[in-house]
Amino acid sequence: MTGTEILRHRLSLLPGKTGLVLQRLFEADLLSAESLGVILDAGDLAGDCNKLLGFAIAHGELRAAGAPVADALAMAKRLGARISLSWSAKRWKAEHDRFARAETLKRLSAENVHYDLSKFDAVINAKFPGYLIRTSRRLGMEGLRQRHCVASFHDRIKAGHCVIASVLLEGARWTVELRLTGNEARPLAVGQIKARCNRSADSSVKEAICGFFGASPQDQIPQFCNGAPAGRAYMENVGRVLPALRANGVARVVVSFDGCGDSGSISDIWFGGSDFDAKETLVETVGVTRWFVDGQWVSERGIEIKSVYAAIENITYDYLEETGVNWYDNDGGFGDFVIDLEKGTVALDVNTRFTESETAFAAERDIETGEPVD
Hints:
The protein has helices at about 5-10, 15-25, 35-45, 50-65, 70-80, 90-110, 120, 135-145, 155-160, 205-210, 235-245, 310-325; strands at about 130, 165-170, 170-180, 190-195, 250-270, 280-295, 295-305, 330-340, 345-355, 355-365. The protein is an alpha+beta fold and about 375 residues long.
């Protein structure tokens, strides 16, 4: 069956009036095949067709408001989650983030990456009531148990930027971020401390946890957005994925990301002009590990084999980190990273939310040289 035939079949399964109205809107080109598919998916996942016509009318307004309805539905379908046809644009965005975190936790549990924590093991000498999280599966379990977004730290832990400790104190479990300071006298700094459902720690808990690791609450953690280390490889890695993209007829890659609260993630990667499997096509990329030693950043480079999909994820996060824009805390932010093979450019737009959004960073580079494009 063709795509149109499948849509017509799905319409025939709806209650008479609902199916007939949607079919007429579709035949009159007032509803695209893509929009109709989203509307039908929403009805299936909601288990309620009585409100489907109302949702069809609201769908255009939701898209105009920037609600990631299609992405949220796709994730809900994979997760077997229910949705409501009466959700507002704000609720769709919130549920999209929740589904994205759930998918991340699921993926981490399936991959079960073992983290190299040797640099932290060397300076954590005292015993503390808890343990360091050493695998992505354990990280996923921590996020599920605590109902927060600690899974978003996966890439940073892999790169050696931080480690996560699960600490038991005062009858509660606390998820603690630790970073290296480069100070031999006090080598560790405590970053975020969160309990279940992102509850923050009070001063007594902070002091106790800092005491376990020989760090004080006043310790300054080196931030990657201020005095960022050299050695970033995102433009070099763009060059390494270009041959695979060109060989598979990709004209444009668009990476969408979104964040709020204290986490952010890539929500979608679109490969325009091709339907090749980016998760199965492998490329060599440059991996850079960075840490802070004796008051300065040190980096190591190495070759890593990744899928094109994973390589583009890493390229995006690397470029985002360099901008220094906080697109994941409080109201958060959103944006797109675009590799345009026809135009020969790489572009990044990051928008931050303050009730309304403003562009916080925009740049365009030549795809081959990495030089800015006027």
